[in-house]
Amino acid sequence: GAVVSQHPSRVxxxxxxxxxxxCRSLDxxxxxxxxxxxxxxxxxxxxxTSNEGSKATYEQGVEKDKFLINHASxxxxxxxxxxxxxxxxxxxxxxxxxxxxxxxxSGTQLSVL
Amino acid sequence: xxxxxxxxxxxxVSEGALVLLRCNYSSSVPPYLFWYVQYPNxxxxxxxxxxxxxTLVKGINGFEAEFKKSETSFHLTKPSAHMSDAAEYFCAVSxxxxxxxxxxxxxxxxxx
Lengths: 113, 112
Fold this sequence. Notes:
The complex is a heterodimer. By secondary structure, chain A is mainly β. In chain A, 0% of the residues lie in helices and 56% in strands.
């Protein structure tokens, strides 16, 4: 089946630094990718929809200047957490789809010290 | 807008017993419904989905779910639990834009 690769799987950074997370569709082209965030013991919350060649669409309450999304090619979307703070510590997951078939990456655990 | 409510944050079953995970949805458009499983430190794996057609949907690992429009439900079942079924399960709903709204999740533990 289709595979979505997400990297890194775990990152620890200092407060104030920026972190980039990559999401790649390995065997299909994805014009649309989704970025989710999951706090401990909670569900996934959609952050934004990443569209190839255009600006991302952010959900209400998500700071677009804080969470920069770039979808430069049909197989790669990146999420950059800028000037990270401890409250940004979370599990971030991307997904990419073919019609109604959505495939998820394995997630990135971000810990900001 | 769509939303999902999963009843019960934690379910404990004996190995070989029935697994029943409850999910009710709210949607202003015909819903697409999904069940996902998440193992520790991993992403989500699709168990099954309902888009159109037959209301009883069979998925992987022996799971199935039935879409009941009158009850706005999409409960997940498995006749006989296995130790490997221990995981977190999420119900999700979307419209035809495939932007998923997830439930809070249900943790399943299986007792030997």
